[in-house]
Amino acid sequence: MTPSSATTSTTPRPRGAVHLLACVALLVLSVWATDLPDSAKEDVAPSLPRELAKGPTGEPLTEAQLRALESGDVLTHLAAEEGATVKRATAVALVDAAPEAVYAVLLDIARFPAYMAYVEKTEVLGEADGVTRVRFHLDLPWPVGNRHYVLRMEKERTRESEREVLVSSWTYEPGSGNINDTQGYWKVCAYDGKRSFVRYMVLTDPGGKVPPWMADKATAVAVPRVIKSVREEVARAEQP
Description:
Layout (H helix, E strand, L loop, with lengths): L14 H20 L28 H8 L4 E6 L6 E9 L3 H9 L4 H4 L3 E10 L2 E9 L6 E15 L2 E10 L8 E10 L5 E10 L6 H27 L2
Antiparallel strand pairs: 1-2, 2-8, 3-4, 4-5, 5-6, 6-7, 7-8
Helix pairs in contact: 3-5
């Protein structure tokens, strides 16, 4: 055979080798996708600010969580807080009203005794430099009993990812009552044309002889009820 008539043949790869290469390629792609910056990943909740589109654990919302929220579920999570003997509770949920309507309910402190469980009385003590001091009186079941304290409450309108977020936060005024601590916040933003996304965080140490495990259990039960109460109060306030 002359050089001009020579042909080149390629030995076929074994099927097992091809399959192995395909698996390696898929593995590399999956690792690459995991390492993508958040801005490059699919956003399952594009209507929410990226900073707020997170589940109760702080991780980005998943499609399964979003479906649960759409069906009316309240997603909650308890986590240890550095320096605290009790756990911090976080909840996310949807409320069937515009953000301004939800925010108005959260700021109407005088109405709290009408729908917030265990809140017996609220008393606004004064306002200065954007901080409202409010005395709370709670009638809690045994073994906690009655609790009273002063909160320093603040309200703020912020923007995250070019979207408005309405914030109501509070901290305990040390020495003002018979609890060890309480702090938290509400964050509210538009979800779609008729609903709001809310994020609720609270940490409460009732003090006294209540063991931390019991306080945590009470918090786990109370947090979804708080969301339910707010939903009902918003619906009442929206009625003509």
